[in-house]
Amino acid sequence: MIHYVTTPHFYPIGTPGQPWGDDERAAWRAAQKPSRSYEADVLARIEALRASTDVVAYAVIDHQPDGTYPMYAVRSKAWDDALPTALVTGGVHGYETSGVHGALQFLEQHLADYDGRMNVLVVPCVSAWAYERVQRWNPLAIDPNRSFVADSPCAESEALMRLVQPFGDKFLVHIDLHETTDTDDSEFRPAKAARDGKTTSPEEIPDGFYLVGDTEDPQPRFQAAIIAAVEKVTHIAPADAKGEIIGSEVVAPGVINYACRDLHLCAGVTRAKYRSTTEVYPDSPRATPKQCNDAQVAAVRAALDYALAHG
């Protein structure tokens, strides 16, 4: 099933056809109000993991007057530099809820399964300000997942790059946890078009889970292993009438590819042999919040298990 979402003709901030200036960005930021708590939802769960994991404070992001946000990664307690290493990231887009909660659930339920076999570094919520406001951008109206680039203008992206830089080429696998939602078409694409002084039109929202591989090194068997694990939990998104998902060719069931480094995506932040971005569809009538979180966990486990088995 494909869902069609009607996009508003005009975004309520800015003048159609004119890119935003400082006033429009300030108006957009003022309209973003917190509706949930990073401290209660994320930091409290990380705090509870201190006895069984290593919790690493890697940044404090200052978004005054809204506040400051301490950023944490969680890593295997039994870290061994002789073992292969994996990176799991969630909440690069703060509104993509199961990415955050799926990463936390993996930490709570399965991280210890990899002790002695693989080092795992997990960043559950890359974008704390956006998590609280159920937003895609940071407060400067910058998309973190287009900002993994040298001299990044996005504090969230820059902090994550600093965290992983010392690891060099040690990562064997990186899986980045995302969602595709109805609000991608009803809110976030119109906002981007307004910000950039462009136009937009409705797009088909795929009903189901899919993956984004990297065109630079797509690793199709790796992607297929993740799909096989996830389809035991929730349904996989079909291709549309053009054989595409969100405008990209479906290269295998539930799999499309992007040029991750060229697009400055989080999935291109390492040189890991195995890289994938998950996309869960939480607005599906066929999926519950629990299934969405479970799908993210299944994807992480399948990615790590495949990397361990195939090196």
Automatic annotation (TrEMBL):
**Where is the secretion signal located?**
none
Sorted alphabetically, which CDD domains does this protein's record hold?
M14_REP34-like
Q: Which InterPro entries match?
A: AstE_AspA_cat
Identify which cofactors the protein needs according to its UniProt entry.
Zn(2+)
**Does the entry feature the keyword Flavoprotein, yes or no?**
no
Q: Where is the composition biased (Basic and acidic residues)?
A: 183-198
In this chain, the stretch annotated as Disordered covers 183-206
Give the UniProt keywords, A-Z. Hydrolase, Metal-binding, Zinc
Succinylglutamate desuccinylase/Aspartoacylase catalytic domain residues are: 83-183
**A Pfam short name:** AstE_AspA_cat
Name of the protein: Succinylglutamate desuccinylase/Aspartoacylase catalytic domain-containing protein
Q: Which organism is it from?
A: Arenimonas donghaensis DSM 18148 = HO3-R19
